[in-house]
Write a structure and sequence with these properties.
Layout (H helix, E strand, L loop, with lengths): L3 H6 L5 H4 L11 H10 L5 H12 L6 H8 L4 H19 L2 E11 L25 H15 L3 E6 L7 H13 L1 E3 L5 E3 L2 E5 L5 H9 L4 E3 L7 H7 L9 H5 L1 H7 L4 E5 L7 H19 L5 E3 L21 H14 L4 E4 L5 H7 L6 E3 L31 H10 L3 E3 L3 H4 L4 H9 L3 H20 L2 H21 L1 H15 L8
Parallel strand pairs: 1-2, 1-10, 1-11, 2-5, 5-6, 6-7, 7-8, 8-9, 9-10
Antiparallel strand pairs: 3-4
Helix pairs in contact: 3-5, 4-6, 5-13, 5-14, 6-14, 13-14, 16-20, 19-20, 19-21, 20-21
This protein binds S-adenosylmethionine (SAM) and iron/sulfur cluster.
Length: 495
């Protein structure tokens, strides 16, 4: 029988790193990043305003521009940056928010990341992976009781959760259909994946099974910190294998890729520079920038020494700035704020340009169907800050004027990758999305919402319908026809 050591031996394919290097170098120059940050200390207001205007024209910022924005300290300019971030979000994504849930499939892991509760060195963790029946039950709760349409499935890196297991579990998830009240049915329509970096051949298999976004966080773009928190000899210890996994994913045909950095491992300004460098490099090399950017902040985890008193802990004010600058620097990208943050923090950060958020979140294996509401540190990767359910989060979003979109049409009609980049930059993606947001929100309100949420949600729908009538008169009649059919019980209609 193959041991985990045997399995690990051939995972990294050096040629699938080397082919993307330019003159043998990767795209993260620590010297250049540090120098730009130092050189742009105390920037001129006129220069800052010029950069803000460029971002508002939905142009990607350079890393020089980014360094300038990261160094702004004048409160008036900071406020202008935040207002611009909100306007960019509105221009590209309107008032839509997408919701999703993470689904942990396996918590076995051969790596030993010092910040993570799933590290192999944590001997107190209860380990396992979901078999088909347990998985079906998880999806029945997520899609049939809560009403999620999008999942991010999460896997530890382990021979028991290799690409065969990923493909099988993703097929099972798409296969589950659950009847709901009011003649509807619940089903997961988009499965995004958060897993270890894979080789091109394996990524092709994920593409074939119809995944949405392939998401891998670099954790830190700072090499010596990377080496410190990812012990050498582990698969994750290879910085460049991870750094180029999105290049491989795009080459394998996956259109939507998600990058991220774990804030709290190293200096937050450096990490924002790393994320922007990554986005620019993907645009340069492939023509497709990141579909999403994630900015998880380090949370306490069992037996994870690095989370106890992190030297580079990111305080709320700094985190706020990091999010604002990411929004300005990569104006077309989706931005994900997770339930790692508490409810109040999420409320405050959302208006800076966030486009996606999770709700009803459970991160233990079998967490949705089997475990209670208590968080159990020996069963989950880290502790969550916000455990509110989807109904409550949607009600709050609606009361803040946001419409929750369950639309997954873009990806099913080929509005992905390069094509969606263009639509997003020119503000055209919004046209389809607005219509689909209303239709899918109607569907969700009828199938899953509490009476209280339905009331608040319907006020948002009324407002949206009026906007469609005024701003898109040509499609109004066909839109209303689909809306009425949805109200009468038809499902999964979209433009
Ligand atoms: N094993 C895969 C990997 O490492 O890429 C799956 C990802 S892991 C389950 C998902 C993400 O959680 C990691 O990429 C990391 O950024 C984040 N994470 C790990 N430990 C964390 C902690 N203590 N607090 C917050 N986020 C954490
Ligand atoms: Fe494993 Fe991922 Fe956790 Fe590292 S972050 S220990 S690779 S699950």
């Amino acid at each position: 029988m193959k041991t985990a050591q045997d399995w690990m031996r051939n995972r990294i394919v050096p040629e699938q790193i080397d082919k993307y290097l330019v003159n043998g170098e990767d795209f993260i120059s620590e010297y250049a990043i540090e120098k730009k940050l130092t050189d742009s200390a105390a920037p001129e207001p006129a220069r800052v305003r010029e950069i803000i205007a460029k971002a508002e024209a939905i142009e990607s910022l350079t890393i020089d521009d980014t360094a300038v924005l990261l160094n702004v300290i004048d409160p008036e300019l900071v406020a202008e940056m935040e207002q611009a971030a909100a306007r960019i979000k509105k221009k590209v994504y309107d008032n839509r928010i997408v919701t999703f849930a993470p689904l942990y499939l396996s918590n076995m892991c051969v790596n030993n990341c010092l910040y993570c509760g799933l590290r192999c060195g944590n001997t107190t963790m209860e380990r396992g992976r979901l078999g088909t029946e347990r998985l079906r039950r998880e999806v029945e709760v997520l899609a049939g009781r809560i009403g999620h349409k999008r999942l991010i499935v999460v896997y530890g890196e382990h021979p028991e959760s290799d690409v065969d297991y990923m493909v099988d579990t993703i097929k099972t998830i798409y296969d589950v259909q659950v009847p709901t009240r009011n003649k509807g049915y619940g089903q997961i329509r988009r499965v995004n994946v958060n897993a270890a970096p894979l080789a091109i051949e394996d990524l092709k298999r994920l593409h074939e099974v119809g995944i949405g976004t392939y998401q891998v966080f670099q954790e830190t773009y700072h090499r010596s910190t990377y080496a410190r928190v990812h012990p050498s000899g582990t698969l994750k210890g290879n910085f460049r294998w991870r750094l180029y996994c999105m290049h491989r994913a795009l080459e394998a045909g996956i259109d939507d890729v998600g990058i991220g950095s774990l804030f709290g491992l190293y200096d937050w300004k450096f990490e924002v520079m790393g994320l922007v460098s990554h986005a620019l490099e993907l645009e340069r090399a492939t023509g497709i920038g990141p579909h999403t950017v994630s900015f998880p902040r380090l949370e306490p985890a069992d037996m994870a020494p690095f989370t106890q008193s992190p030297e580079h802990k990111v305080h709320d004010r700094e985190f706020r700035r990091a999010i604002t600058v990411i929004r300005l620097a990569i104006p077309y990208t989706g931005m994900i704020l997770t339930a790692r943050e508490d409810a109040q923090t999420r409320r405050e950060l959302l208006p800076l340009g966030v486009t996606q958020t999770d709700a009803s979140t459970k991160i233990g294996i079998g967490g949705y169907a089997e475990n209670g509401d208590e968080q159990q540190s020996n069963k989950q990767q880290f502790l969550l800050g916000d455990t509110r359910n989807l109904d409550e989060v949607i009600r709050e979003l609606a009361s803040m004027g946001y419409i929750t979109s369950f639309c997954t049409a873009g990806y099913r009609c080929g509005r992905t990758g390069e094509c969606i980049m263009e639509l997003l930059r020119t503000g055209q993606e919004g046209k389809f999305c607005k219509l689909n947001a209303v239709i899918t929100f109607r569907e969700w309100l009828d199938d899953f919402a509490s009476d209280e949420t339905k009331k608040v949600g319907e006020a948002v729908i009324e407002h949206e319908i009026e906007e469609v009538r005024v701003k898109m008169p040509k499609v109004f009649d066909s839109f209303m026809e689909q809306y009425e059919r949805t109200k009468a019980g038809e499902r999964d209609l979209y433009f």
